[in-house]
Description:
Elements: H1 5-30, H2 44-60, E1 72-73, E2 76-78, H3 84-88, H4 95-108, H5 125-131, E3 135-136
Parallel strand pairs: 2-3
Antiparallel strand pairs: 1-2
Amino acid sequence: MLFTPAERRLLTLLALLLSSGFALTALRQVGCLPGPPEGAAYDRGQRDARVRPVIAELASGPVVRVAAHTPFVDGYLDVNRADSLDLVALPGIGPALAGRILVFRRERGRVDAVDELREVNGIGEKRLADLKRYVVAR
């Protein structure tokens, strides 16, 4: 069965939209992308406002926060409390690696020592040594 050029373009567009929807859903399930807040439209500005201060604080050294819900302990990011946005703010950690850390933590349970992160695919000795400057496991 042959399609006209207009039909081929329409089928290509539909396939792209469908595959991008599946990809976004998979990334949200792994933890690489945040889902929309409950009962509200998702606002990208919320994520940017949350990530920028963390990046600036990590770049300037250990961080001290007072808020009770913070993933930071004694100025270091606690890998057991961090979400994907917190992990992505770390140097050398992208969305894919942050997702693998969250999956590792979900499958294994609590991380007792930062050295256990060596078992995550993509974290070698050098990256682990870099991460030890910013993270703790409590």
